[in-house]
Automatic annotation (TrEMBL):
The keyword Oxidoreductase applies. Belongs to the short-chain dehydrogenases/reductases (SDR) family. This is Oxidoreductase. PANTHER family: SHORT CHAIN DEHYDROGENASE, SHORT-CHAIN DEHYDROGENASE_REDUCTASE FAMILY PROTEIN. It comes from the Bacteria. SUPFAM superfamilies: NAD(P)-binding Rossmann-fold domains. InterPro entries: NAD(P)-bd_dom_sf, Sc_DH/Rdtase_CS, SDR_fam, SDR_oxidoreductase. The keyword Oxidoreductase applies. It comes from Actinomadura rugatobispora. Keywords: Oxidoreductase.
C-alpha cells in the first residue's frame, strides 16, 4: 500500500489521480485550497483519505502538511504536484505580478513540496515525484508564453532532480497533458491578461477558443490517471510522458522541427571553438 500526497486534489487531474490511487487500495493525503470539496471522497473511502487545506504558495503550510502526512502514515511514497491554472496573454501583455504569481504556483510551490518530501523518501530508499506539467512545458506558442515559462522552469528543475535522486531509488515523472476535460479552461480557472489590439491576430483566437473548449476537450482524466500509475509502476519510468493524441502529435512535431533546425545550423554551431 502506497501513501500519496496530491495537491489540487479537489478536481481535474488531482481528483482523478486520487480516485485511481484509492481504487488501487492506496491511501491519499488530498490537499486542496477548499478541502470541503473532498468530503464525498473522504466518506467513500473511510480511513484512507485525509483532506487537508493547502495553498501551495504558502511555504510554511507546505512544511506542516508534509510533517502531518508522515506523522499520520509514517511515509510518503508518491508526491503529485498538480495544483495549477492557465494564463492566456502575449508576452507584452503579461505583467510582472501575473508572472510572479503563476511562478509561485507552478514552480516555487512544487519545488518547496519536493524539497520537503525528499528527506523522507531518501530515508525510505524509495518514492516518486510526479510533476504535472503540460505539452506547453515542452514547447510554446503565441499566447501562452507566461504559462509555458513556469512549466519550462518546472521541467528543467525536474530533469536535474531525476538524475540527483535516482541513486536513492526515487523516480521523477513529468506529465505533459494536452487538452483534457478538466476545469482548466473554465471561466473561474483561466486567467487572461489585459489584451492589446496589436496582438489580436496572433493571440485573439486563443482567447476565445480556449474558453470555448471547456467541457469539450478530448482527453479523459481517468485514463490519464491510469497512464500515470502505469508509468510509475514500470521498471523504466519515463522522465517525460505526453498524454493525449493532441500532445503526442504536437510533441512529435516539435521534436522533428528542433532536429531539422539543428541540422540546418549544425555547421555554424560547431564552428565557434578556438
Amino acid at each position: 500500500m502506497k501513501v500519496w500526497l496530491i495537491t489540487g486534489a479537489s478536481s481535474g487531474f488531482g481528483r482523478a489521480i486520487a480516485e485511481a490511487a484509492l481504487e488501487a487500495g492506496d491511501t491519499v493525503v488530498a490537499a486542496a485550497r477548499r478541502p470541503e470539496a473532498l468530503d464525498d471522497l473522504v466518506a467513500a473511502y473511510p480511513g484512507r483519505v485525509n483532506a487537508v487545506r493547502l495553498d501551495v504558495t504558502d511555504q510554511a503550510r507546505i512544511s506542516a502538511v508534509v510533517a502531518e502526512a508522515v506523522l499520520w502514515h509514517g511515509r510518503i511514497d508518491v508526491l503529485v504536484n498538480n495544483a495549477g491554472r492557465g494564463l492566456v496573454g502575449a508576452v507584452e501583455e503579461t505583467g510582472d505580478r501575473e508572472l510572479r504569481d503563476l511562478m509561485d504556483l507552478h514552480f516555487f510551490g512544487p519545488a518547496a513540496l519536493t524539497r520537503a518530501v525528499l528527506p523522507h523518501m531518501r530515508r525510505q530508499g524509495s518514492g516518486a515525484v510526479v510533476q504535472m506539467s503540460s505539452m506547453g512545458g515542452r514547447f510554446s506558442f503565441a499566447g501562452v508564453g507566461g504559462y509555458s515559462a513556469t512549466k519550462f522552469a518546472l521541467e528543467g528543475l525536474s530533469e536535474a532532480l531525476a538524475a540527483e535522486v535516482a541513486p536513492f531509488g526515487i523516480k521523477v515523472l513529468v506529465v505533459e497533458p494536452g487538452a483534457f476535460r478538466t476545469a482548466f479552461a473554465g471561466e473561474r480557472a483561466l486567467l487572461q491578461s489585459a489584451a492589446l489590439p496589436e496582438y489580436e491576430a496572433s493571440v485573439g483566437p486563443l482567447r476565445s477558443d480556449l474558453p470555448g473548449s471547456d467541457g469539450k476537450q478530448p482527453g479523459d482524466p481517468a485514463k490519464a490517471a491510469a497512464a500515470i500509475i502505469r508509468a510509475l509502476d514500470a521498471a523504466e519510468t519515463p522522465l517525460r510522458l505526453p498524454l493525449g493524441n493532441d500532445a503526442a502529435d504536437a510533441v512529435a512535431a516539435s521534436l522533428e522541427g528542433a532536429r531539422a533546425e539543428f541540422a540546418a545550423w549544425e555547421d555554424v554551431a560547431r564552428g565557434t571553438d578556438f
